[in-house]
Amino acid sequence: MLIPFFLSCSKKKESAASIKKETFLNEQKVIGTPIWKYLNNNSYSLYALNQGNFTKKIDSIKNIFTDHLQKNKTNLDTKTYNYERLAISVSLDKYILEYPELHKRFTGKKTIFSKTNQKRRDKNLLYFNQPNLLSNKYLVNYAASFISIESTKKLQHGDYDSMDNQQLHANWDVIDTFFSNTEVNIYWKEKYLQEHIANKGIKNIENFYNNLTTNHQNNSTLNRLTQLYKKQHDARERHLIEIYKTVANFELEVHLFLPDKKVFKGNRPTIVQFHGGSWSTGNPFWYFSTAKQYAKNGWVVAVVEYRIKARQGTYPYEAVKDAKSAIRWLRENAKKYNINPTRILATGNSAGGHLALATTLVENWNEKTDNLKINAKPNFLIVNAAVYDLTDKNTRWIREHIDYKEKATEISPNHLTKKTNTKMLLIHGEKDMNCPYTSAHDFYIKMKSLGNDIQFYTVKEAAHYIWFGKYASEVSKITAEYIAKNIY
Questions:
Q1: pLDDT digits over 128-163, tens only?
Q2: Helix/strand/coil (H, E, C) string of 106-134?
Q3: What's the whole-model pTM score?
Q4: What domains can be seen in the chain, in order of their start residue?
């Protein structure tokens, strides 16, 4: 079959243009890889610079990319050139946008934008209400950082203190203030509501959900959001939900999954599950499927909602109080739910693992309304990739609050080692950078030397998220073996 001459020429031109574009992008990757590595690995030293020197550093990096783009301008089609020009600009300006907040975090010194950087920020805001630019992921990342910064300012003013889902309220208000184009406004609201449902749940978000689903046309994002909402809504309908504590106008839930009384007689061993999420985010829903499975095998399972930064504006100290309150509530209601109060296992991932440890180790942080005569210590612990040290750089944010600046050691497991009757299994990834392996192993050694019944299992080559993905089956196996041998 012969190809018409004009089509043949067209394809050759298209092919040549594609090769030139690919060559440019490959060269850009070679240039960019060491630069992004440098920026990511030197955050502290960079953000500790004064604003003038920091800006010069970022702009010098921007010039490297810009010069490369200009040299290749004639080799790129207009659409690609404009996309890359904006991408280079906002991806580097994002570092400058985040400078005041991170400079304060790393140095403790408050600063405000220079006039030049303020103008730069205001110029970038002009891109926000152009729907055609939503396809530029670098601009979207810049806008997301802007929303985070502005919503944090709103939260610090205290206007949302009595509300649930405080971060979502603040994000929504920022979106309505700065994103006036209807299409763009809906894009961001859908994005943030979907993220909220996935990571913080659906409790008390009806107004947000109805606003989007009632007034706006369906699209793929909205359909995914709706499916996610309905899935969690239906899951909440299929088990018992009780309020274990009301504090500061927040009703905290415990999700109970109960075994069949006809099959499993008498008092049952109980699992208390605390989700992860850096005490900032997290969703009890994450545990529902495993909770159902344990209940089928004769366990009472309690999935605990506790206060988190994004919803109630709280810090880990309040979460520790909630964890202890939940176990006290379970023991107080043991007869009602056929709970064996001497066979309570607390478990959790990451920050949830920390809370499980805290119920055993922390003495001083108790809710005023708790009956302190009821023991908050579980009989067994199984924790995955837990946080053991709340005084390191990874947990810097919890020490920013003036009321808690010097109190991190009071809820930090590595500072609370002691003899305890609680039996423990600690599971940790060998290459965990989020919660360093050394801090977990040091805790184990200290606790073992004190004569505790404690076991430590290393997941070889694993990073932080050992409870799902590649290493999940290994973690499940060691967990099941420990339970069979020690508990049930």
A1: 999 999 999 999 999 999 999 999 999 999 889 989
A2: HHCCCCCCCHHHHHHHHHHHCCCCCHHHH
A3: 0.91
A4: 28-126 (no CATH), 156-229 (no CATH), 240-486 (3.40.50.1820)
